[in-house]
Amino acid sequence: xxxxxxxxxxxxxxxxxxxxxxxxxxxxxxxxxxxxxxxxxxxxxxxxxxxxxxxxxxxxxxxxxxxxxxxxxxxxxxxxxxxxxxxxxxxxxxxxxxxxxxxxxxxxxxxxxxxxxxxxxxxxxxxxxxxxxxxxxxxxxxxxxxxxxxxxxxxxxxxxxxxx
Length: 164
Fold this sequence. Notes:
Elements: E1 5-15, H1 18-34, E2 39-52, E3 57-68, H2 71-81, E4 85-90, H3 98-138, H4 145-163
Antiparallel strand pairs: 1-3, 1-4, 2-3
């Protein structure tokens, strides 16, 4: 078995309004600290959210140090919490039995397959919705943004003419 693994992780949360981002940061950190079977939080800090002028979203992050008993637990953490940054601090080298390594690779493969399946389903849904929107536009039920703008301009011109 591998030695205990210690790492430092950055988990970023962005959104609106500010209070929701603050609540989400606290919620995630509380859940991390509650976990006792898969890993142990050694140290943590919430970096308060700041407004990103470009995206107009508030963005904050959790800087957390965690200790894992096994590589699989580390992998599960990464898939569940999707940290923006992962730095393994200890050990300097990891030895893993081939059976454990096969398990890790199968877990990664399973996660990737699930994600690919979800992406295919979402693409099919987007395609279907785009087709429905196009058909609705052809029938005049829905107008594209350009048509709405042009129709609004025409309506305003007509209202101005009627007043005169």
